[in-house]
Structure formats: C-alpha cells, structure tokens
Write a structure and sequence with these properties.
39% of the residues lie in helices and 25% in strands. With 206 residues, the chain is α/β, with parallel strands linked by helices. Strand 6 and strand 7 form a beta hairpin. The protein is globular, with a radius of gyration of 16 Å.
Length: 206
C-alpha cells in the first residue's frame, strides 16, 4: 500500500505544499506537459493528483479534456477541490486500487508518487486496467540512477519516510511486465538534488 508516513506528511504539508515546492512542481509538471500531445476531449486521470496543480495545467492546455484525480490524502484533495471546482472529478483512493472502472481512461498521469508505493507493479497494473486500448501513460518520478537522489532517499528513511526509488531500467521492466509498450524513458533535472525519469508508454489496442 501507499506509505502511511507519506500520507501523514502530506496532510501536514497540504496548506503550504504548492508554495513550498513550486519550483520543483513547475519543472516536473512542465516536463509532463511537454509530452502531453493532443488530448482534446480525452479522459485523463492524474493518479496521485495532490492539490490539483497538474490537472489545472492540463485543463488550461486542453479545456475539452475530461479530468479525474485520485489521491489518498483528504487534505490534499480539499485543496484540489478548491482549485478545480467542478472542473474535475476528484476521488480519495490509492494507486494500487483505483476507484475507477476498467477501460474508462485515455491517459494516465503519475507525477512524483510511485516511489511512495510499496507495490509499484500493482499500481502499474491498475493504470493498465483503467486505460482503454491504445491508452497512454506518462510517468515521472525520482530516479535512482542519480547518486544525490539515492542520498536523499536514505535521508528520508532516516526521517521515517518509507519510499522505494527505482532505476530507470527497473521502471521500464515493470512497465513491460504489466503490458505497456514503452516509447521512451528519459532523464531530466528538477534542480539539485532531483534527477527524475519520464516514461511515455502505451497499451496495445484491445
């Protein structure tokens, strides 16, 4: 399941989360948006939507898109509801057991949350389940190929935060194991110490 320590931490951070991490969020969300492509009218799910910043940016880019957000933190979802209003359906839930019917989504977004999930393969299988045939996944998260990121993970463990940061190749392997065809998996920086991967993958047509 998702890390309970992380859920408690985000409940505490919710009121100031956007302001505190704005530079990091701008960079990581910008990378997702750069690979978004034409998604006018698409059904888009942000798994781990937090305060709704990424969904708001997607809405500005594709006003006709139908937006859905899922997050385990009620406090973060409250911020998302205040930001998005009726512009998105927002549900409390975990990536490992998404409260979304099978085949109902055209694009899944996952940003900076997979490392908090104890069973990442289960989460990726859920992403595949909710996607329609030919649907896409844009996944970005911390990359263990980077020494400073591995150091940061050790620091978080020392602080009592459970996490598992993966290498890019490990992520690609899990994506392929759960039925995705990986188009690209590249690395980028969101400022020291953050190196992240961004994987773009697609389900075969069903």
């Amino acid at each position: 399941m998702s890390s309970m320590s992380a859920i408690r931490e985000y409940a505490r951070l919710a009121p100031r989360y956007d302001r505190r991490y704005r530079a990091y969020l701008d960079r990581t969300h910008g990378e997702v948006l750069r690979h978004l492509g034409d998604c006018s009218g698409a059904r888009i799910l942000d798994a781990g939507c937090g305060t709704g910043l990424l969904l708001a940016a997607v809405s500005a880019r594709a006003p006709a898109a139908r937006l859905l957000g899922v997050d385990p933190s009620p406090e973060m979802l409250a911020r998302a509801r205040a930001r998005l209003g009726a512009g998105a359906g927002l549900l409390q839930g975990r990536a490992e057991a998404l409260p979304v019917a099978s085949g109902r989504v055209d694009l899944v977004l996952s940003s900076s949350s997979l490392h908090y999930i104890a069973e990442p393969e289960r989460a990726l299988s859920e992403f595949a389940r909710v996607l329609a045939g030919g649907g896409r996944l844009l996944l970005t998260d911390w990359c263990a190929d980077s020494g400073p990121v591995r150091w940061m993970e050790r620091f978080l463990h020392w602080r009592g935060r459970e996490s598992h940061v993966m290498h890019g190749g490990e992520v690609v392997g899990l994506l392929e194991k759960t039925g995705f065809e990986v188009a690209r998996c590249t690395r980028y920086s969101a400022g020291f110490p953050w190196t992240l991967y961004l994987c773009s993958a697609r389900l075969p047509d069903r």
